[in-house]
């Protein structure tokens, strides 16, 4: 009887210890992913300091048209950006990036009197880019201490070279998509800040970039928004 009592006590103690060992794991629950992850939704977190890059999505153009619904203005077959991640908190929330570079190339114009596009330059970099994980994965591109969101377009015309400067009134808005890991802007207005009458009164910017890659990681995995 004494032996049976001792064995029963040991078994009870083992069960109790096992329950105690399991309790902390249950209390902790699953680890939350950050807003930006690599390779898949819920994949490894994108590290602060990583550099994200993207070209235009295949088959798309970056455009600066003279109206939100028109097709008159400037169209570019090449564009790319590079941004550094400055914050990537656990979802839900918003990650922030510093837009370091944005380039445009292979640009043409169908504006009357314009013979070609000499250059398009994004001024006052870096900008601040916020990527949220709410409805539509909203994106907000805002000016930093360097100055307003501004783009300088140099056109070749029949009367010589003209310089058109376009400046946003504040921030511009976009969205991201996990379907093809893209970030896009549609008809974001940049009113003319300076330039002759050859320059249209406002430029409406549209572009779709993707896939967005984490270029700081071997293999440059795609970036997703949780």
The spatial strand order of the largest sheet comes to 3-4-5-7-8-11-12-13
Poorly predicted runs of 5 or more residues: 1-30
**Structural class by SSE content:** mainly beta
Specify Rg, calculated over alpha carbons. Answer: 26 Å
N-to-C SSE series? Answer: HEEEEEEEEEEEEEEE
Largest sheet: 8 strands, antiparallel, barrel
> What is the averaged pLDDT score?
88
Number of strands: 15
Tell me the β content: over 45%
Shape: elongated
Number of helices: 1
Cα distance, first to last residue?
Answer: 60 Å
Short description:
The chain is mainly beta and 226 residues long. 12% of the residues lie in helices and 50% in strands.
Describe this structure in words.
The chain has 226 residues and is mainly β. The chain folds into two domains: 30 residues; 190 residues. It contains one helix and 15 strands. It has an eight-stranded antiparallel beta barrel with strand order 3-4-5-7-8-11-12-13. Strands 1-15 form a two-stranded antiparallel ribbon. Strand 7 and strand 8 form a beta hairpin. The longest helix is centred in the N-terminal third of the chain and has 27 residues. The chain is elongated and about 60 Å long. The termini are far apart.
């Amino acid at each position: 009887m004494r032996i049976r009592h001792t064995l029963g006590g040991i078994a009870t103690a083992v069960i109790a210890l096992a329950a105690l060992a399991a309790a902390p794991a249950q209390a902790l629950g699953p680890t939350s992913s950050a807003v930006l992850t690599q390779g898949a939704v819920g994949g490894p977190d994108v590290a602060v300091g990583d550099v994200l890059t993207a070209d235009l999505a295949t088959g798309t153009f970056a455009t600066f048209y003279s109206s939100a619904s028109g097709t008159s203005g400037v169209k570019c077959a090449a564009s790319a950006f590079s941004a550094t991640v400055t914050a990537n908190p656990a979802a839900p929330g918003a990650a922030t990036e510093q837009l370091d570079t944005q380039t445009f190339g292979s640009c043409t114009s169908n504006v009357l009197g314009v013979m070609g596009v000499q250059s398009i330059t994004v001024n006052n970099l870096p900008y601040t880019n916020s990527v949220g994980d709410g409805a539509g994965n909203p994106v907000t591109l805002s000016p930093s201490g360097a100055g307003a969101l501004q783009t300088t377009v140099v056109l070749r015309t029949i009367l010589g070279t003209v310089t058109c400067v376009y400046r946003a009134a504040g921030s511009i808005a976009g969205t991201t998509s996990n379907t093809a890991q893209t970030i896009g802007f549609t008809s974001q207005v940049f009113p003319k800040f300076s330039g002759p009458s050859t320059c249209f009164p406002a430029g409406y910017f549209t572009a779709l970039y993707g896939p967005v890659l984490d270029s700081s990681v071997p293999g440059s995995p795609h970036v997703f928004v949780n």
